[in-house]
Structures are given as structure tokens and as C-alpha cells.
Amino acid sequence: MGETFYIFKSGELKRKDDNIILKSLEGETKNLKVEMMDELYLFGEVSLNTKVLNYLSQNNVTMHIFNYYGFYSGTYCPRDRNVSGFMLINQVKAYDNPNKRIDIAREIVNTAYFNIYRNLRYYNSRGIELSEQMASIQRIARNLEFAENVQELMGIEGSIRRTYYTAWNDIVRQEINFQKRTRRPPDNMINTLISFINSLVYTTTLSEIYKTQLNPTISYLHEPGTKRFSLCLDIAEVFKPLIADRMIFSILNKNIITEKDFEKESEGLYLKEEGKKKILREYDARLSKTIMHRDLGREVSYRYLIRLECYKLIKDLIGEQDYQGFKIWW
């Protein structure tokens, strides 16, 4: 598996022979070693041309672009080498079948609920009183089996998340007044971290979907639409409690990220460059973390768990095995 490269410096990307070179505004040059690269994240103001894009495509490198504030702007995907008309037809059939769609969507929400509850149980077992939120989430989740459409499932998922968020001030040991989820602009440290790290999970999920025959625009829980990869949102729901939420608790409770890593502007609170770099180091380490997979009987990384989720969905779509989401057991 290739490496992930992050670029913060502003400058210009150029192809030179069999390499891509970053030339910063200060005149520094860096060889990006494309042959070792799997993903490229751009956070700085970088100019490039079609020679660079063509070379990234030849080497199967996906490029994700973020703006100055750390908000996700878009993704450049190479030409799809795993295209499958058969899989596309089956994805669309499952979406058009109301019963099949709601079965998949229900399993996604149920798995997300289970993983959220697991996080609360973990901290409750360590002396943080969260029994009220745990009981409330269980009550809400009982409605999942009675939901008659995807809109009802989305409403239940939203209620579970809102209740879950009421526990975060107790879990996080820093003094942060986190009252509710706000996105643009984020108004406190936790909201800023959720927005930034969730976008990393979405882009990682897109990269893993791209390595399979799934079409990232056809989804089951989130409504497919124009100009977005909605299947990433579906699959990311399963992994946000494990990857994003647990990471936020860790970096705040260990004081890896503090208020010094943020800057206040009229529109909201944003991460400084050094804060983003700290998070990306932690994020890479988390994706590389391995567990002994119960079914495969071998160690797999958190990143590979996302791809395995895609494969499980494929098996369902082609009629081999009903989809069952990945549930945290630790």
C-alpha cells in the first residue's frame, strides 16, 4: 500500500522526468516520489498543470483538495480502472428497490449506533457517568426496526448523534463549551475538529471505494445527488465512531491539541497549520493501527477495514451475502 502525502506549502507542482516536484514560493524544492504515493492532500495554495494530473493518473494517485480553513473542496480521481457495468447495474437496482435500499440503510444506521454506544460504554466503564445517555440512545435505537423509509432512519440517526454529543463535555477533559453540532462556521474547538477529521474520513473512504468496483455516487442511506460522492457518507457513518470520534477524545484528553492550535476569525474558529499537521500525524497513525480480524484471522489496518466494508456491500449487491456492518468489539 502506498503512502499518503500532505502539502501545506504554497507553490507549484511540476512533472520532471519520472517525478513530481513541489517548488515552494520560497524557492525550496521537494521530490514527491510518486511511485511510493497512494494519496495526495493539498492544503496550500498550489498551482499545477495537466502534465501533473496525467502523471498522477498514470500512477493511480488520488488527490484531495482542502481550502485555507481546512474545509474539503474536492477530489481528483484517476480514470477508473475497476469499472464494472455489472456492479453499476446491481447498485442501481438495490437503490431502486425500496425494500433492499432500506435494509442496507437500516444496517448502516444500526452499526453506527452500535459503535457509538460502544464508545459511551468504554468511557462509562472508566468512571465517567454516561448511563443516562446510554439508556437514551438505546431507547431511540429501538425505533430502527420500525422505520418505514430512509427519511425516518435519517431522523433516528440524527437523534442518536445529538444524544451522543451531550456526553462529549464529560468525556473530554479540556474545558470546551460544546452544546451542539455546528458546521460552517464551526464555533468551538470540538466542532472544528469534527468538521476537519470527518472530512479526512470521507476522503479516505472515497479512496478505498475507488479501489473497488463500487460507484461512489450511488448510496442507500444518504440520498444520491449531483456533485457529491454520497456512498462515502454511507460507509463513513460506520467508521466515524472508531476513527474520528475516538481520535478527537484522545488528542484532546492527551493535550496533543489545545486552544493554542486554533485561531479565531469573524466567521468562526479554525485550525492553525501546525494544528492540522499534528492531527494528520495522528490520523495516519490511526489508519495504520491494526487489529486481529475475527473472520480473516489476520491483522488488518483500520484503513483496510474500510475497504473490507466495501467488499461486504458488494457481496450483498450481487446476492452472495447480506451486508453486516463492522461493529467495534473492544
Structure description:
This protein has 330 residues and is an alpha/beta fold. It has two domains: 74 residues, Ribosomal Protein L15, Chain: K, domain 2; 233 residues, Up-down Bundle (Four Helix Bundle (Hemerythrin (Met), subunit A)), CATH 1.20.120.920. Helix content is 48%, strand content 16%. It has ten helices and twelve strands. The strands form four sheets. Strands 1-5-7-8 form a four-stranded mixed beta sheet, with helices on both faces. It has a four-stranded mixed beta sheet with strand order 4-3-2-6. A two-stranded antiparallel sheet has the order 9-10. Strand 3 and strand 4 form a beta hairpin. Helix 8 crosses helix 9. The chain starts with a strand and ends in a 13-residue tail after the last helix. The model has no long low-confidence stretch (mean pLDDT 93).
What is the element layout, followed by pairings?
Elements (H helix, E strand, L loop, with lengths): L2 E5 L3 E6 L2 E6 L4 E3 L5 E6 L3 E2 L2 H9 L3 E5 L5 E5 L8 H12 L1 H27 L6 H11 L8 H16 L2 H4 L17 H22 L19 H24 L8 E4 L2 E4 L1 H16 L1 E3 L6 E3 H16 L13
Parallel strand pairs: 1-5, 2-6, 5-7
Antiparallel strand pairs: 2-3, 3-4, 7-8, 9-10, 11-12
Helix pairs in contact: 3-4, 3-5, 3-8, 4-5, 7-8, 7-10, 8-9, 8-10
Protein name: CRISPR-associated endonuclease Cas1
Enzyme class: hydrolase
Family: Belongs to the CRISPR-associated endonuclease Cas1 family.
